[in-house]
Amino acid sequence: MRPTRLIAAAVVALAAAGAHAQAWPTRQVTIIVPYPPGGLIDLVARILQPRLQQEVGQTVVVENRSGAGGNVGAEAVARAAPDGHTILLGNPSLGISPLIYDRLNYRPQEDLAYVGRYGTVPNALVVHPALPANSVKDLIALVKARPGQLNYASNGYGTSPQMSMEMFKAMTNTFIVHIPFRGSAPAVSSLLANETQMMFDNVPPILPQIKAGKMRALAVTSLKRSAALPDVPTLDEAGLKGYEVSSWFGLNVPAATPREIVLRINQALNRSTADPKIREQLESRGATVLQETPEAYLQFIRAELAKWGPIVKRAGVKADS
To answer: How do residues 27-73 score in pLDDT, each as one tens digit?
Structure first.
């Protein structure tokens, strides 16, 4: 074959490869939410879903696949075909699970590609109304007077609410028994029934119960007060200086997903969250909307692992695996 023909063949091959990369999506896109319906991660996925569907021009569905503190759903995405049609709703467990699970069936940094985060929310420390604690100071005094006699509910091992309480316990030198559940909804139900006496949870899903007086909010975990709960102090204000935890959410795909597809999903995500209607839905629930690159998301995960490592070690947090 003559050199000119070789060049022409190469150009055609490259063009075909480029056309194939740009063909995404070619069928239904599934967002895997690794928790049951009703919690923050489920809520923000369903807020995003219709606008993302409009952006990509294919059906986008949300599928709940819960278990093991978010790791069942994350592993399913890590092992899915790397073609951009199966997406994980990323969450704080990606920066915590490797620290607390002795045997994790996937590696968050190596087996997933990072598309971008699109929001953060503070957690709130809430108690059952029957508990005689109207402030963080009251609660600390109460649990110190009754070590090991009070329980806290969490959304599961390795979740931001659990780690929020473990940081609280470490900073206050208190002992509160952990009762883990598979997601926010069952954890909240246990608190409402007074089967557990306190918990940290993401602000959006518990905001209605707080406003209805079914649970009492003592503090939020961000350094600034939440716009959704302006009268509730931060833990830093309440005396735990430097206390800061935020829940967050983003999108991940299998690690071998082509870079072109990762960038196309990132662009679709950022265009979706630039929509004033989507921003209003997220912000009205106490979220801060982000526009982030894949590189910034991965750097954030590495910082999370470094942040939580000492807390996990000091508290001896280990998940049943």
So the answer is: 999 999 999 898 889 999 999 999 999 999 999 999 999 988 889 99
- Integer-rounded Cα Rg, in Å, for the chain is 22
Q: Assign residue 190 a region: left if phi > 0, alpha if psi is -120 to 50, beta otherwise?
A: alpha
**Taking a C-beta distance cutoff of 8 angstroms, is the pair 186, 204 a contact?**
no
The helix (run of H) or strand (run of E) holding residue 124 is strand 112-127
Question: 3-state DSSP helix/strand/coil percent for the chain, to nearest 5?
Answer: 45, 20, 35
**Contact present, 155 and 184 (Cβ < 8 Å):** yes
Beta-strand relationship, 86-90 and 112-127: unpaired
Go through the domains of the chain in sequence order and give each one's CATH number: 15-120+248-315 (3.40.190.150), 122-220 (3.40.190.10)
**Mean per-residue pLDDT for 9-15?**
46
Q: Which of 143, 190, 187 is nearest to 169 (CA)?
A: 143
**pTM score above 0.90:** no
Structure tokens belonging to residue 241: 């200086």
List of residues 6+ apart from 276 with CB closer than 8 A: none
pLDDT digits (tens, 9 = 90+) for 96-145: 999 998 888 999 999 999 999 999 999 999 999 999 999 999 999 999 99
Return the closest-CA partner of residue 304 out of 96, 85, 160, 53: 96
Distance in angstroms (rounded) separating the CA atoms of residues 269 and 225: 27
